[in-house]
């Protein structure tokens, strides 16, 4: 039975969903039902309303939108490489659960849809700082509204294409198929590279873009981000929340549990 469909056993989001078992149509339905996307779109509508009520001048508005569109891939790269893949958050007791939720769980099982989406308590404050604040400095309240709306829509775009890269199908568009391969390598071959989602320019500039041929040896920590059994003995908080440390491919772990 496809876990992406609703049934008699509960509502849509009371059960787990896995992108490698879903069709594109099922993904679209799930995407627009998820509370994070609903929240982003609702806040976008409110931001547009605020802009209409208190608009910025055309030039500051265009400058704000252009800045966010340009900076967003770089901001994502920085956060993905140096925050989500950091080796310090799990060492701090009150940050361990946040690190587990915002990225460790995603690498433990990359196709698990519920933990693929970002957590609102981390994404929204970040967008206020990197999108609304620059907009305010450029165009006041209207600029802040334009910047926040642009950041929210960029996040929706990134989340959707991130889902596609974990969906069990090969995109027909060449550039999207190539990005999917690069991202799959990040999750299933070597986590220390290919940090982009829809844009790998910054990986190229910072020297972290690779293909499997460039790194023939598979990373032993691709599913746990370096949070190994040995590390967990010293910093146990993520392991306690997770019921242990992830080892091996997620489908093989599931199969072993069922034996």
Describe the protein in words.
By secondary structure, the protein is mostly helical. It has one domain. 64% of the residues lie in helices and 0% in strands. It has eleven helices and no strands. Helix 2 (35-53) packs across helix 6 (120-166) and helix 3 (58-84) crosses helix 6. The longest helix is centred in the middle third of the chain and has 47 residues, at 120-166. The radius of gyration is 19 Å and the shape is globular. Residues 1-9 and 255-259 have low confidence and may be disordered.
Reconstruct the topology from this structure.
Elements: H1 24-33, H2 35-53, H3 58-84, H4 93-108, H5 113-116, H6 120-166, H7 174-188, H8 201-206, H9 229-234, H10 237-242, H11 250-258
């Amino acid at each position: 039975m496809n876990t992406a469909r609703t049934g008699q056993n509960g509502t849509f989001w009371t059960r787990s969903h896995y992108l490698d078992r879903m069709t594109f149509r099922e993904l679209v339905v799930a995407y627009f039902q998820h509370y994070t996307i609903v929240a982003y779109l609702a806040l976008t509508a409110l931001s547009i309303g605020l802009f209409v009520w208190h608009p910025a001048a055309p030039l500051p508005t265009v400058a704000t939108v252009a800045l966010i569109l340009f900076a967003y891939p770089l901001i994502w790269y920085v956060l993905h490489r140096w925050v989500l893949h950091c080796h310090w958050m799990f060492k701090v007791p009150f940050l361990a659960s946040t690190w587990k939720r915002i990225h460790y769980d995603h690498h433990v099982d990359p196709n698990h849809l519920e933990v693929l989406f970002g957590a609102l308590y981390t994404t929204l404050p970040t967008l206020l700082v990197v999108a609304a604040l620059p907009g305010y400095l450029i165009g006041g309240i209207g600029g802040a509204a334009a910047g926040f709306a642009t950041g929210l829509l960029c996040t929706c775009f990134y989340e959707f294409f991130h889902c596609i890269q974990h969906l069990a199908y090969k995109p027909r568009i060449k550039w999207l198929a190539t990005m999917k391969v690069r991202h799959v390598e990040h999750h299933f071959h070597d986590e220390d590279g290919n940090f982009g989602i829809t844009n790998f320019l910054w990986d190229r500039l910072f020297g972290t873009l690779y293909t499997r041929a460039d790194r023939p040896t598979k990373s032993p920590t691709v599913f746990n981000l370096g949070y190994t059994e040995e590390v967990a003995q010293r910093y146990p908080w993520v392991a306690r929340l997770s019921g242990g440390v992830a080892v091996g491919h997620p489908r093989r772990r599931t199969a072993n549990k069922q034996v």
